[in-house]
Task: inverse folding
């Protein structure tokens, strides 16, 4: 390979890398920042009577 062929090959690789970098930066700026919104679960308050706890306690003995 002579110097001219190596120069063309080097310039081609350089331009490919620059194009790849530009495409990656463009993709990063246009991509959605948050892909999915997180739903916060609701907490339910349950009332447990003491009678129920006593019944379960006696049942296991």
Result:
């Amino acid at each position: 390979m002579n110097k001219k062929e190596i120069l063309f090959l080097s310039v081609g690789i350089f331009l490919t890398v620059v194009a790849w970098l530009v495409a990656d930066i463009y993709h990063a700026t246009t991509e959605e920042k948050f892909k999915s919104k997180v739903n916060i679960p609701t907490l339910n308050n349950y009332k447990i009577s003491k009678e129920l706890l006593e019944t379960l306690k006696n049942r296991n003995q």
About this structure: The chain has a mean pLDDT of 87. Residues 3-30 form the longest helix (28 residues). The helical segments are 3-30, 50-60. The CA atoms of residues 49 and 55 lie 10 Å apart.
